[in-house]
Amino acid sequence: MARRRKGERVLGPYRDGRGWRIVLAEAPDQKRRLYFETEREAIKAKRIAEQEFEETAGVTIKEAIEGYEMFQRTEKKDKPRSVADTVYRLGLLFPEGDDLLSSLTPKRCQELFDNLKVRKTKYDRPFSTDSLGNILAESKTFMNWCVSKKKWLRATPLAAIEVEGKRRHGKPQLRLDEARKWTARALELAEEGESGAVAALITLLMGFRASEVVKRVVRDLDDDGKILVVEDAKTEAGNRRVQVPAVLQPLLRGLAEGKAASDRLFGQHWRDWVRKWVVRICEEAGVPVVCAHSMRGLHSTLAMDAGMSAHMVAASLGHESARTTLMSYAKPEGVEAGRQKRVTAGVIGGGRGSRIRRNIVPVSFRSDIRGARRRRKSL
To answer: At residue 13, what are phi and psi to the nearest 5 degrees?
Structure first.
């Protein structure tokens, strides 16, 4: 028989006024009282409670996490990386996997969370408010699954725990002049044959996630290099066909040349490869060091500055929110070209005293410049 935790038992039934009651001693410091009209009902409830104690007593934290992992993979169909991240975070909060799941009282969970706040990450730094918030959110979802789906717990012991401190929103971004310097250096490296520079440029000029960049295969580059297809994004909304800026088309065609359709466009790399290239270009361009995800944020900032609505930007970046709004009023492909032309023109050809490199500036942008000059001469 599976062992129960210390003090776990059902007491009663006891006469209580005109009715009957039983007491569920779930832990030495945790008791619940249930009331019934008849003794027969109280006895039946006691048998059910004792049976549930026996069924849940032997489930360890490790077994529960393994069950949740299987649920995410088979029923939710989550991405393998997302599942791995969830299991990792659960392991941080619940390191003692051999303990019984039923031993996780609110008091015990608070102690575990307090211990996590003073522990160090693998980088020998304290956990940030954002990290603690993400760990707690994942753990609460896991506990809710244990309660609602598996009936291993009667209530989540994490309900009252909250993260102290203010969470950060967004990453630090380059200023526009800094982005122009960064892009100029990235293009120089790309023309020298550095594929990492091309990958880094995609995060800014197309707003791709680092993981979306490294996963692209040759067949994803469609229509002679004018379209880049994403079919395995982080979310369903992230699966999209994105127009490639003219400045990137010859660079991507060059990377695809001589490779099979199923070959990775940039070779076998992890997403950190893109991040390292973004940092390297920042250092060589003499601008503040930012991460790859910051470039994705800068892309959306420049697009909104150019007049695009937040709904359109959210959909073009593959965010789930506002996707329906965009689909109801305009096709994502319809706004993609204008968005990318404005962003690309801003970081490559703008700024006082900057020299426009005609061999890399999109034809449409050069046409805009010539048209403006003709209009000035006619005045």
So the answer is: -80, 155
- At the topology level, CATH places domain 176-378 in hpI Integrase; Chain A (1.10.443)
What distances in angstroms separate CA 370 from CA 246, 363, 375, one per listed residue?
A: 18, 11, 9
Task: Read off the pLDDT of residues 70-124 as tens digits, 9 standing for 90 and up.
Answer: 999 888 888 788 899 999 999 999 998 888 888 899 999 999 999 999 988 877 8
pTM exceeds 0.85, yes or no: no
Q: What is the DSSP letter of 289?
A: -
What residues contact residue 94 under an 8 Å CB cut-off, 6+ apart? 61, 65, 104, 112, 139
Domain residue ranges in the chain: 9-57, 73-148, 176-378
Residue type, 65: I
Q: For residues 200 and 135, what is the distance between their CA atoms, to the nearest angstrom?
A: 29
Res 321: pLDDT: 44
pLDDT on residue 56: 58
**Residues 255 and 195: beta-carbon distance below 8 Å:** yes
Structure tokens at 345: 């023109």
